[in-house]
Amino acid sequence: KLLGALGIGGAVSGIGTFSRSRRRSLISIERRISSSLRMLSLLISLPRSTLRPSISDDSLVSVAYHCRSLTSLALSHCPQISDQGMARALPLLHRLQHLFLACCDTVTNETLSIIALHCDRLRTLDVSMCKDITVHQVDLLQFQLPFLEKVQCRFANGADFTVVL
């Protein structure tokens, strides 16, 4: 009654409401953090291979279609990527500067020919451990692409070298 008579009763009850509301918000935040930490601990315990989605030619083409301004594309260790997928995706990626295809077993010299046709801004290429890429085709590619600075070919078709231009 005294607080009401002084005209501050409403303010004090408002503070109580604010505190309850703030307490609920903090509890909600704490629950979300706890849930996120549990999810993170589950992800950390998974083998690395289960975290990488299986990327197919169709998903590559979809990414290329929707993200035409990509400058860097890392497809290393994606065994389902093939020459056919690269032939459909690369014409859409004119700004591509860095392409990583290491350990893509179904990528061949045909992909290098497609790169030469459509990726004239390419600066970095990694075809390490691509068994069907030849050193001769890599040499031809270097002459066809004016901005190409680095080609990594470690163990590609038995060769072991990195070229920095």
Automatic annotation (TrEMBL):
The record's listing under Pfam families reads: LRR_6 (PF13516)
Q: Name one GO biological process term.
A: SCF-dependent proteasomal ubiquitin-dependent protein catabolic process
Q: Which residues form the signal peptide?
A: none
Annotated Gene3D superfamilies: Ribonuclease Inhibitor (3.80.10.10)
Give an example GO cellular component term for this record.
Answer: SCF ubiquitin ligase complex
InterPro entries xref list: Leu-rich_rpt, Leu-rich_rpt_Cys-con_subtyp, LRR_dom_sf
Report what the protein is called.
Uncharacterized protein
